[in-house]
Amino acid sequence: MFTKTTARFATMVRISVFALASLALPMSLIACSEHNPPNPAPTSTGTTSPSSDVSSAPAPEDIEDPFEAAIAAYLRFDSTLDEAAAIPDPEYPQLEDVAADDGLVVAQEITQSLLDQGLRNTGRHTYEFEIKDWSPEQNPNQIALIVCTDSSDTQVIDLDTGEPASGEEYGKRHVEALVELRDGRWLVTDIAIRGIGSCLPSGFAGICSFRSD
Fold first, then answer.
1. How many CB atoms lie within 10 A of CB 133?
2. CA–CA distance from 111 to each of 40, 83, 106, 158, 184 (Å)?
3. pLDDT tens-digit profile of 153-205?
4. In this structure, are residues 23 and 111 in contact, taking their beta carbons and an 8 Å threshold?
5. What is the Cα–Cα distance from 162 to 145, expressed in whole angstroms?
6. What distance in Å separates the CA atoms of residue 63 and residue 73, rounded to the nearest whole number?
7. Which of 16, 28, 94, 141 is 20 to 30 A from 56 in CA distance terms?
8. Rounded to whole angstroms, how far apart are CA atoms 24 and 151?
9. CA distances in angstroms from 113 to 84, 97, 148, listed in the order given
10. How does DSSP classify residue 54?
């Protein structure tokens, strides 16, 4: 993804969301700034208030700070995937507005799997974000995120019966995503999702931590 391993900038955001069991897919958003990045990377200050829907939050393209914009783009991706998974519809057209390349493929595979099994997703997640890497050093347009997703309060349910699906596991997952600015739009272009128990709290150190109910 990136080769730079020194002087990382880390920021953390914690939110409560309605989401997929395999991914954290928000219906509310808190963004955190007051960065203190090294070397130096671009800085800005300010906060975004909680909202009931990502659509009422600033678009990633309207956010000046690229790190905040990347996190907002990931949350927009998740919110759109949540809409697709609630149907579920692997051809949900808005997915192409928030993802590309392998990011889009994974989103479609998730919703296709739900459709094939007759399932959909409900519940609430919490997130922690860390900026893993970015390129170029100044004004980055490629940002790699690490996301610790806790699905303990989510549920996968049967489309026909509305009952919880059997055999589902819930807990913390380690997710890595690449967010890129392409033709003026931030898109999730790659994403890797590990199994339950793969996200260790000690791997996250951040400046800010918030929760929205």
1. 18
2. 40, 10, 9, 14, 27
3. 778 999 999 999 999 999 999 999 999 999 999 999 999 999 999 986 544 43
4. no
5. 34
6. 10
7. 141
8. 7
9. 12, 21, 22
10. G
